[in-house]
Amino acid sequence: MQILTASQALMSDGWQRDVEIRVGDDGRIESAGPMTARATHHLDMLLPAPLNLHSHAFQRAISGLTEARGPDPTDTFWTWRQQMYRFLGGLDPDRVEAIAAMVFMEMLEAGYGAVAEFHYLHHAAGGQPHDDPAEMSARIVAAAQEAGIGLTLLPVLYQWGGCDARPLAGGQRRFGNDPDRFARLHASAARHVATHGHADDRIGVAPHSLRAVDAGGMAAALALAGDGPVHMHLAEQVAEVEEVQAHRGARPVTWLLDNHAVDARWCLIHCTQMTPEETTRLAATGAVAGLCPITESNLGDGVFDGVRHLGAGGHAGIGSDSNVHISLFDELRTLEYSQRLRDRSRAALAMQGVSTGRRLYDMARAGGAQAGGRNAGRIAPGALADLVALATDNEWLCNRTGDTALDAAIFGGHGAACVTDVWSGGRHVVREGRHIRRDTIRARFRAVMAELEARA
Predict the structure, then answer these.
(1) What is the rounded CA–CA span in Å between residue 367 and residue 269?
(2) Which residues carry out catalysis?
(3) Single pTM value for the model
(4) What domains appear along the chain, each with residue ranges and CATH number?
């Protein structure tokens, strides 16, 4: 039993002062109520820690390496993608595990409580399957174990190089499976999660995109999902929209909603290229829009219509995607600022009586939990203890309280510096702002990066 007390906490029914939280050995909150006496570990401000709903952990290794323009006069998502494919050659299972552990540690230190890993790097160089087809998935599970982060593993089905069913080439061959081989991979990945993961870990499925998966593949992937989460890239780039429309006769969002029973199990990633009608239709499904504002900015994807989507009652959450920069509070600020720049407005996502920061944070904690199929995102009995504590007695939060403190953490630019403690499924993995295994994980990551630099 862990007993936590806090001067203020964001509970299911709003802010409360002087609270006491009891966390059981199963990592779930047993009780949440008024403080009877200060615990040994007393916290300034306690929040539910959101789940990071979209990550490609291996891409952390190329952060900062794709910012120079080549001979092409234009640099786009598609040129970035080719650079990313060329980098894949040096990534073996040991290196992927070390990189993923670093990513997951950084997420925890940033205030995330869990992660949904959209995992498509399955095979060895050249596309040769490992003896265990889910060897790379096993390394993601191992990395999550080392970091102590709650994991929703999303093995990705990737069949084709485009809507015309052209074969995968180059680095893409490491992603590819037909439905039968993917079913074997998914079954093995599920065994790894059940045998070696945390008790609170989950598995879902991810048909990569409408460009990379055909109708038969989509049906096969959905059959594997059961009641677990279904994630999919959708409407990220103008060229993608044009390709899908040319081959399927409709824009990606319209085609998907017309042809599949999209519901609350689904998380549709990016959706930066939607019409107003598509935005309101997607909101009505109950699915989560998986937003990655820092990566979407870095890749020039476009701006998600958050004002319209949330205004229509839609659900959304936050992910770090390429992991070019892992910061929960910066993701939230970037999302809001994108709306302001597009509309030339201020406090774009605020509501009457609810500040901008509070609405953003509520969106992230609820949408993340839904997208990860994880009973978390709230401080209430029975929920997993995914918690983040912030210090308020500093020059950034200035002892502010409630929504004002959240606004200061998000828009003041120093929210991450205020994180003192993080729990994932009751595991107390960040203490005094540092991950408990930081030195070991960091040393292993730096050794891997040195090896990759030597190969370049």
Answers:
(1) 12
(2) 270, 321
(3) 0.97
(4) 46-438 (3.20.20.140)
